[in-house]
Amino acid sequence: xxxxxxxxxxxxxxxxxxxxxxxxxxxxxxxxxxxxxxxxxxxxxxxxxxxxxxxxxxxxxxxxxxxxxxxxxxxxxxxxxxxxxxxxxxxxxxxxxxxxxxxxxxxxxxxxxxxxxxxxxxxxxxxxxxxxxxxxxxxxxxxxxxxxxxxxxxxxxxxxxxxxxxxxxxxxxxxxxxxxxxxxxxxxxxxxxxxxxxxxxxxxxxxxxxxxxxxxxxxxxxxxxxxxxxxx
Length: 232
What we know:
Blueprint: H1 3-16, E1 20-25, E2 28-34, E3 37-43, H2 49-58, E4 64-70, H3 77-88, E5 92-99, E6 102-109, H4 120-132, H5 150-165, E7 168-169, H6 170-176, H7 182-188, E8 194-198, E9 201-204, H8 206-213, H9 216-231
Parallel strand pairs: 3-4, 4-5
Antiparallel strand pairs: 1-2, 2-3, 5-6, 7-9, 8-9
């Protein structure tokens, strides 16, 4: 079982319990939010020091940090010792098991509440990133895959609009609904998708037209938003 194989059952488990789930947010494998509650889940195919270090680092963001691993074949003394260490570290434990009846997630225990200093700036950045995404396009536990961020979504939206309506000012784009960061995204041109053709007016590059439209799902949503803005 790969780390990425753990993501779908954990996502489904959390969504069943009413959480909004996002993968690969600010180096966290999974972020789950419900009202003011923030849960972090770190995925690994086995419990090792790397997992424990990562999980305890996440405790500076949230008290509710879980580790999620495949269920061991044997619930022996060694495994009971590992669970004791996880509990001592005030972490929660989720086990994923695969059987003839499908995949199940078993919550062994919740994190113990602790009074520790939170890095407020990091926590705020995570919440803003989750809020800025229109959907869940990443898979938790995948390291070498290009990740979708709120910034990239916004750039795709702008690229889509420019591709359809032609050269435009940031003010025009903002009026159509591309957001407050429109001008900075155009000027910074992080992906090489935009070109300034005169003062305050930008067009999409050939590279931008090809690359932005390759994110099919998000691009189609952007087209729908543009049609709605043009008819309203």
